[in-house]
Structures are given as C-alpha cells and as structure tokens.
Amino acid sequence: MTRLCWFADRESFVAAASSRQNAIEQFDRPMAAMSSSPGYCTACARSTTFRTGGLAVDYPNFREGLHCRRCGLTTRQRLVHLALGEQTNLRSGKLRGALLEHSTRLFRVAHARWPWLIGSEFLGPGHASGRSYWWSTHWWRWRRTRHESITSFSYATESLDLLAHSDVLEHVYDTGTALRECARVLRRGGTMLFTVPFAIDGHASVLRGRPLHDGGIEHIEPPEYHGDGVRHGGIYTFHTFGWDLLDRIREAGFARVEIGFCHLPREGFTAANPGIADAWKGLPVVFRAVC
C-alpha cells in the first residue's frame, strides 16, 4: 500500500528526503525525457500512464504535471487524494469533512470516493460563506457553487472531522486568522490536510506583499502570481512559507503538526524537477495538523 512518510521536525524530514537523491537520479530523471510513463494511479487504483511532457520543456514541473490519463489528476492533486484516503482509513463512523475547492477534478474524484466531503470555492469579497451562487469558470459551464472563506467559515465550531485545502494559504494575507478558523471548525482529534509551495531551505517565511486600503497591494518582494481555476489571470501570492509555518500552526490551536512526503515514481510521486542538483527538495510535500 502506498504510504506517506510523516515527520514532526525539520531535521528528520531533511534526513529522510535527502536520502532519496540517488533514487531520484536513477528513477525520476529518466522520466523527464519521456513523453509518457506507465505506472499506477493511487486515485484510480488502477494501472495508468502519466503524461510527462518530455524534453519539450526546460523545467518539467512534475508537481503540477504527471497527469494520470485516466482521472486527469496531477501529482499535487493525487497527493492530497492519497492523504485523504490515509486519514479516512484511520477513522470509523460517520464523517463530515470539507475540501476547499469545488470546480476541480480533485473535488470530483474525491467526492465520488467520499460523498460526505463538502466542496466550496472562494468566490471573492461580497459573497456570504455557506451560500451558493451561480458561478462559471467558462461561460458555458454555470453551476451552483458554495462560497467559503478560509478566514470566516460558515461551519459551526467543532463541526468537521476533516478539512483539506491545496495551495490556498499562500494567497491569504492573514495566515494566523485562517489557521485559527481552521482549528475552530475541527472537532477534537480532527485533521487538517493541506499543501503549499514550501521553501525547504527557508527557516523563516517570506512576506511578499500586503494589501492596501484602496484595494491595491504594497509589494515587498517581486510580485508572484499562481494559476487559479476560478479567476483568470492568476492569483497573487502573499507568502513564501518556510519552516516557521509549523510553529504558526501550533500557535493557532493545533496539538500536533507534521510534514509528509511520498516518493514512489511508479505511482507518479516524483521530484518536481528531477534534473537539478538537490532535486529531493522538490519532493511532493503535504502537511497534517491535528486538533
């Protein structure tokens, strides 16, 4: 069974992840020269082929690539799906959980597996958390979409067993409020699973900018925008997170915080760019915080 490796501190994580460098050079690096690679998708639970892109790109970002030809999920999305599966297998009884996305392949695949997952999107200021609105990322594909803000959920206190979000926190200026809100809605023993772009070498997180009263942004670092499935043109990145993120999560009210990685090339879990030195720093990483 495919498993994540979990660590409570930087030293143990770095020791385990860096030990994968030789395996990355042996197994991951050849994949970057292929247009596709046969393997096994943990989300489909079937053999599949991963689309790699081949040598057409100088920077094969496998974190956002290696799409499974069956379900279409990327490495990051399959990592979240894998973490969700691990957590649900550890729990019994009727569960209630939320995934902070709704218009994505990940939500469709995850909701088909775990129908109790509630999906939502942040549709922008002026929308009320918990309400559904007609929303479309394409003019012909309108659907009712629930709005939730990670800094102001509609969920009642201690009402969820599981909360998951993927590459959300770096786009939220007030990280502290967001983390405290996540802790508030989880029951005792409840788990938050999430991904963020993470600087393995960074002890302290970097604040890239801050919002202004007129709606603009004061840039402290060169502006960085990430692709977004809801808004065209990308979404501004306020933070580049380092290892102090673990302390921030504990300060927000979580009792236990861990960082995990999975390196199994046949299952499509590889270094983001296996061709560079210290490629282990780009292994697929996910965080787990327990109330």
How are the elements arranged and paired?
Blueprint (H helix, E strand, L loop, with lengths): L4 E3 L2 H9 L2 H11 L4 E6 L4 E6 L15 E2 L6 H15 L7 E3 L5 H9 L3 E3 L12 E4 L7 E4 L13 E7 L8 H11 E10 L10 E2 L1 E3 L5 E3 L5 E2 L8 E2 L2 E2 L3 H8 L4 E6 L23 E6 L1
Helix pairs in contact: 3-4
**Total count of domains:** 1
Helix content: 10-25%
Strand content: 25-35%
CATH topology: Rossmann fold
- Count up the helices: 6
Largest sheet: 7 strands, mixed
CATH architecture: 3-Layer(aba) Sandwich
Low-confidence parts, pLDDT < 50 over ≥5 residues? none
> Separation of termini?
27 Å
Task: Report the strand count.
Answer: 18
Strand order of the largest sheet: 1-17-18-10-9-5-6
The ordered H/E elements are: EHHEEEHEHEEEEHEEEEEEEHEE
Q: In CATH, what is the class?
A: Alpha Beta
How would you briefly describe this protein structure?
By secondary structure, the chain is of the alpha+beta class. It has a single domain (5-290), classed as Vaccinia Virus protein VP39 (Rossmann fold, 3-Layer(aba) Sandwich).
